[in-house]
UniProtKB/TrEMBL annotation:
Record-level Gene Ontology MF annotations: DNA binding; transposase activity
Protein name: HTH-like domain-containing protein
Domain HTH-like: 139-190
GO biological process: DNA transposition
InterPro entries assigned: Homeodomain-like_sf, HTH-like_dom, Transposase_8, Transposase_IS3/IS150/IS904
Top-rank taxon: Bacteria
Pfam families reported for this sequence: HTH_21 (PF13276), HTH_Tnp_1 (PF01527)
Length: 213
């Protein structure tokens, strides 16, 4: 008949764990000092480094990994929500992207994580930081508010030809391709007005038979 395993009081077990984990004493020294087997001490230590989640047991290392992964996902979701709220078309507006990244960092997000979510290489981002806009680009930024104002003041129905004509009236000359590019960057286009079409109600001839209807 096998010997029954010895049952140790919880207070004693906690003391052993405190020595092994918190005070970093050698497992062999603890086992010898308190007359218990080395395997027992190791088993207690391993069991203490496990966490139970929804009935499943995980090692402490795995638990910490999962916890970090969850926090990363939560952070990424917050950044994406922040980005979507800003509605930035960063591919067309580097300045807005740079401001967005900096704003995210100021709000406590990691710069590398933000760039990863925006699908922007780190090297590209730092190149953009050094970027100096050309004179043409500076003029474009001045033209954009004016183009948008003309478009909005005309029920958003103006396209390239009529906006171009309105600009010429102000002695501002912009080529077709350039104006089209700026309108695309502003995400505006001519909207065709919808008119209600009146249709005359159909009249059924009194002489029409039931079979003909």
């Amino acid at each position: 008949m096998k010997d029954m395993p010895k049952i140790y009081p919880k207070k004693f077990k906690d003391k052993i764990l405190d020595l092994a984990i918190n005070k970093n004493e050698s497992v062999n020294d603890i086992a010898e000092k308190y007359d218990i087997s080395v395997n027992t001490v190791k088993r207690w230590v391993n069991e203490s480094r496990k966490a139970v989640i929804d009935g499943k047991t995980y090692s402490l290392k795995r638990y910490n990994e999962l916890e970090k992964h969850i926090k990363d996902i939560e952070t990424e979701n917050e950044i994406l929500k922040f980005v979507l709220q800003k509605g930035v078309q960063w591919s067309n507006d580097v300045d807005k992207l740079l401001k967005l990244v900096q704003k995210s960092v100021d709000n406590g997000y990691h710069r590398t994580t933000v760039l990863k979510l925006l699908n922007v290489p780190t090297s590209t981002y730092y190149d953009w930081l050094k970027y100096e806009p050309t004179d043409t680009r500076k003029q474009d930024e001045k033209l954009k508010p004016l183009i948008k104002k003309i478009w909005e003041n005309n029920n958003r129905e103006y396209g390239v030809p009529r906006i171009q004509s309105s600009l010429r009236e102000k002695n501002i000359y912009v080529g077709n391709r350039r104006l089209k590019r700026l309108m695309n960057e502003l995400n505006i286009h001519a909207m065709t007005p919808t008119h209600k079409v009146y249709r005359k109600p159909a009249v059924v001839d009194d002489k029409t038979s039931v079979e003909d209807m």
